[in-house]
Structures are given as structure tokens and as C-alpha cells.
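Dear Dr. K.,

Following up on our conversation at the group meeting, I've run the structure prediction for Cytochrome c-554(548) from Vibrio atlanticus. I'm pasting the input sequence below exactly as I used it, so you can double-check it against your construct before we proceed with anything downstream. Let me know if the numbering doesn't match what you have in your notebook.
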Amino acid sequence: MTYRSFTLLLLALSPSLHASNFGDPELGKMKSPSCIFCHNPTGETSNTAYPKLSGQDSTYLYNTMKAYQNGDRQGAYAEMMQTQLSKLNDQDLKDIAAFYSSQP
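The predicted C-alpha cells came back this morning:
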């Protein structure tokens, strides 16, 4: 194995590299107070009109929030979601996605 291959393998296995891509769940919890009105504090909603967020893949949650934020996602609650997400940056969305993804 060459030095370069070994280095790339170590980078691929580094947990900190992967964690930085998906955000910080603790920060996400602090950044998601407006989410709880529809999705509850842990992402387990009792109202079937709102999707369950807990345990969902963080990349999926992030991409969905970006689609709402950009106006690419349509539906009954699209305008409300776009408004809720309008002041959040990409890191905020990653942190929120990491939080809900980490919930059982």
C-alpha cells in the first residue's frame, strides 16, 4: 500500500471528517425551537399531517430543508416551511438535520 493510499484510507475512516459534514446535533437542538410546534421536540409528531423527523437520514433532512428553502419543494406546507427556514444558513440546516437524525 502506498503512502497516498494509506492517507486516503485514514481520511475516509476519520469520524471527525464525517461528523463535520452532517452538523452538530447539540447545536441543532438549540436552533430548532420553531420546529417543535409541528414536529414536537424530538421529531416524533402525533399529527399525521406533519412528517416524522426523528431517525431520518441527516442528508435527506438537509436536502429536504434546502428544497423548501429554495422554493423547489411544493405542497400544502411549502410556503410555511420556506418562511421558517428563510433565515437559516447551510450550517444551521446541517445542525438541525443532525439533531433530528440522532433522535430514536
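Two things stood out to me. Confidence is low (pLDDT under 50) at residues 13-19. The radius of gyration is 16 Å.

Best regards,
J.T.
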